[in-house]
Amino acid sequence: MRIFSYVTTTIDLRIAFIILGSIILLLLNLILEGIFLNIIAVVTLIWFVAVAYLIYHSLSFVKGDSGELDVASVLNKLPQGYSYLKDFVNGKRGNIDGIVVGPTGIWSIEIKNYQRGTITFKNGVLYNDDAPLENALTQTYAEAKSLESFLYESLSTTLQVNPVLVFTNKKTRLHFGFNKQKGVYVIGIKWLSDLVQKQELGYNLPPEQQEVIKNVLKKNTSIL
Q: Are residues 95 and 130 in the same domain?
């Protein structure tokens, strides 16, 4: 993660230098050169801004993908009897980043890889420092409920799904423990394995029922 952070910071600085250099080039041409070179300078500026925009959004994608890989690394080390399935697609209801099925029940995992900060809960909303995470809890809770509906429609059985919102940046600070916030477990990645193995937080799911559930979910997910 340190290497990734360093690369991200380095590229962001390069983007800033590219934009600054382009602006300086434009100003110099406006002062010293004719109309033709001014047009070239404008086109160059637009080009570099477009490149910077694409790089920025590419970094956001890589950052999110890195968070999912970190979660997979943790959950693939769960004891025998647990299975981690990623990228569950539930038709028009959207997708779920990951699902754990095991002796302690079913856990839906929503993954966030934000910049480091302190996660707090105020007036029903999560905050990363002073920035509100408006839909984080609502999204995570809705995903768990949509999975419950999917399982009921597939198996004609009512099954509880435990919603989990996990922050993968190890420098993110949280102080909720295993207490739910608006029905959702909000934790850092280092506590994820412990959470899904806590029998008192989940419920007893027999092995034969686990297999039935996994077979249904496999049609819409990939196993890591």
A: yes
Distance CA 18, CA 37 (A): 19
Give per-residue pLDDT as tens, 60-102.
444 446 788 999 999 999 999 999 999 999 877 778 999 999 9
Q: In angstroms, rounded to a whole number, what is the distance separating the alpha carbons of residues 104 and 221?
A: 20
Residue ending a domain, choose from 68, 92, 115: 68
Tell me what pLDDT residue 220 has.
Answer: 85
Are 93 and 8 in a shared domain?
no
Which domain does 215 fall in, by range?
Answer: 81-223
Q: How many helices (H) and strands (E) does the chain have?
A: 5, 10
Rounded to the nearest integer, the mean pLDDT of the chain is 81
Cα separation, 57 vs 32, whole angstroms: 35
Nearest residue to 182 (alpha-carbon basis) of 100, 98, 121, 130: 121
Whether the predicted pLDDT of 129 surpasses 50 = yes
Does 52 map to a domain? yes
